[in-house]
Amino acid sequence: MAATSLDQVVSLCKRRGFIFPGSEIYGGLANTWDYGPLGVELKNRVKRDWWRTFVHKRADIVGLDASILMNPKVWEASGHVGSFADPMVDCKECNERFRGDHLLEEKIGTEAAAVLTLTQVQPMLMAEKIPCPSCGKCNWTEAKQFNLMFKTHQGVVEDEAALVYLRPETAQGIFVNFKNVLSTERPHLPFGIAQIGKAFRNEITPGNFTFRTREFEQMEIEYFMEPGKEAAAFEEWKQLVWNWYQSLGIDKDRLRIREHDKDELSHYSSRTIDIEYQFPWGWGELFGLANRGDFDLSQHQKFSKEDLQYTDPDDPKKKFLPHVIEPSFGCDRTVLTFLLEAYTEEELENGDVRTVMKFDPRLAPMDVAILPLSRKEPLIAKAQEIHRMILDQTNLVTDFDVTGSIGKRYRRQDEIGTPQCITIDFGTIGEDDKQGAKDTVTIRDRDTLEQKRVPIGELIAALAS
Ligand code: GAP
Question: From ligand 1's centre to the CA of 268, what distance in Å?
Answer without folding.
Answer: 15
